[in-house]
Design goal:
Strand order of the largest sheet: 1-2-3-4
Number of helices: 4
Oligomer: single chain
Structural class: alpha+beta
Distance between the termini: 34 Å
CATH class: Alpha Beta
Helix content: 25-40%
CATH superfamily: Ubiquitin Conjugating Enzyme
Strand content: 15-25%
Shape: globular
Number of domains: 1
CATH architecture: Roll
Radius of gyration: 15 Å
Length: about 140
């Protein structure tokens, strides 16, 4: 009803089991200007079990696998009935600003993020331009 800033989600089927979401890259981070699409699978046992979000848009991020899987503790071990789909999407959006490198889906990217943030940001920005920015051409 009242989506968080830069986040949209809509169901793809009548059973509300599959959703498409989009997250705008937050300002002042390497993902700024990007529009990232995600697929959400809502298990039949939701809200007892968490939704399963997956990036469809390619993204260079330590907490997102090359296959789009997202590594967040709240989606694995710390799921709570108080968490909602909007809260999950806001958490994913904030992960774009503040990657969590201690536990990652892609250890090489996490190591780069920790050791050379400038190079990490450059590559993440490059991927954002290449995969997450759409330009209109006539």
């Amino acid at each position: 009803m009242d989506p968080p800033e830069g986040i949209r989600a809509c169901p793809l089927d009548n059973s509300l089991s599959y959703w498409q979401a989009s997250i705008k890259g937050p300002p002042e981070c390497p993902y700024e200007g990007g529009l990232f699409f995600l697929h959400l699978e809502i298990p039949k046992s939701y809200p007892m079990r968490p939704p399963i979000p997956k990036f469809v848009t390619r993204i260079f991020h330590p907490n997102v696998s090359y296959h789009g899987d997202i590594g967040m503790d709240m989606l694995r071990h710390n799921w709570s009935l108080a968490l909602t789909i909007p809260k999950v999407l806001v958490s994913i959006q904030s992960l774009l600003t503040d990657p969590y490198c201690e536990i990652s889906m892609e250890p090489e990217i996490a190591q780069l993020c920790d050791s050379d943030r400038e190079e990490f940001d450059r590559i993440a920005r490059e991927w954002t331009v290449k995969y997450a920015q759409m330009y209109m051409t006539c």
